[in-house]
Design a protein that fits this description.
The chain has helices at residues 10-18, 20-23, 78-94, 114-125, 130-139, 141-145, 151-160, 165-171, 175-190, 208-211, 214-227, and strands at 58-60, 67-73, 98-104, 198-201, 204-205. The chain has 229 residues and is α+β, with helices and mostly antiparallel strands. It has a single domain (51-227), classed as Glutaredoxin (3-Layer(aba) Sandwich), CATH 3.40.30. β4 (198-201) and β5 (204-205) form a beta hairpin. α1 (10-18) packs antiparallel against α9 (175-190), α4 (114-125) runs antiparallel to α5 (130-139) and α4 packs parallel to α7. The longest helix is centred in the middle third of the chain and has 17 residues, at 78-94. It is globular.
């Protein structure tokens, strides 16, 4: 959750990723941390030379869009789940004028299934269906969040969106998937990201309270568009 969670240590994320093959054989039953979210009062400027993150990034919209929204998200984070339909609505409203990028930032170990969800989405991405898996995971967040074993749930999503099932099962614990999550985590830390959801609009961090109110976020986008005719 935003601002109330400890810094994610990249080494811990990488170490957890190396254990995912085991994880998908036997899920654990840890209890995720649940504390209240707080907010940021003013936008922060992106550092001059942040890490690049996974390349190519998962993006909706043209590379030359006048506004780019870069989200660092955790699939198990409740505020991220609330932001998901807001961004989908704004994507439809603004069309090619905006670009939305999603970066993986699973809050390990506070969210016990976040890394598994990130790996499922990245594995789907290797078959060109990241956004289909991304949407299913967020839209069904409560269902799998409460599950003991998420493996059959995510495998069911893979079947539903028409993935090569055997490849999906191989890719989910692959080095390629692991590296993409790791690189997004490095970028997050280079930008000073402390929690999720964190969104940068053309390199400036959007205040958390503005993210969760569609009209406020819409106003920020319109202001940016007006300044870049």
């Amino acid at each position: 959750m935003k601002r109330n969670l400890p810094f994610i240590i990249i080494a811990a994320v990488l170490g957890a990723a190396l254990l995912m093959a085991w994880y998908f054989k036997r899920s654990t039953a840890e209890t995720p941390a649940t504390t209240a979210a707080s907010s940021t009062s003013s936008p922060a400027q992106m550092p001059d030379s942040p890490d690049a993150g996974a390349d190519p990034p998962h993006a909706l919209g043209p590379a030359d869009a006048r506004v780019t929204l870069e989200e660092f998200g955790d699939f198990e984070c409740p505020p991220c789940g609330l932001l998901h339909p807001i961004l989908k609505t704004l994507e439809g409203e603004f069309g090619p004028r905006i670009r939305i990028i999603f970066r993986e930032f699973p809050l390990v170990p506070n969210h016990q299934h976040a890394l598994a969800a990130a790996r499922a989405a990245e594995a789907a991405g290797l078959q060109g269906k990241f956004w289909e898996m991304h949407d299913l995971i967020y839209e069904n967040q409560k269902t799998w969040h409460e599950a003991f074993d998420v493996r059959p749930i995510f495998e069911g999503y893979a079947t539903k969106i028409g993935l090569d099932f055997e490849r999906f099962k191989r890719d989910i614990s692959s080095d390629v998937v692991q590296q993409r999550i790791f690189l997004d985590g490095k970028r997050a830390h280079s930008l000073g990201v402390k929690g999720t959801p964190t969104v940068f609009l053309n390199g400036r961090e959007v205040p958390f309270e503005s993210l969760m109110v569609p009209d406020k976020l819409r106003e920020i986008i319109n202001t940016e568009l007006a300044s870049h005719p």
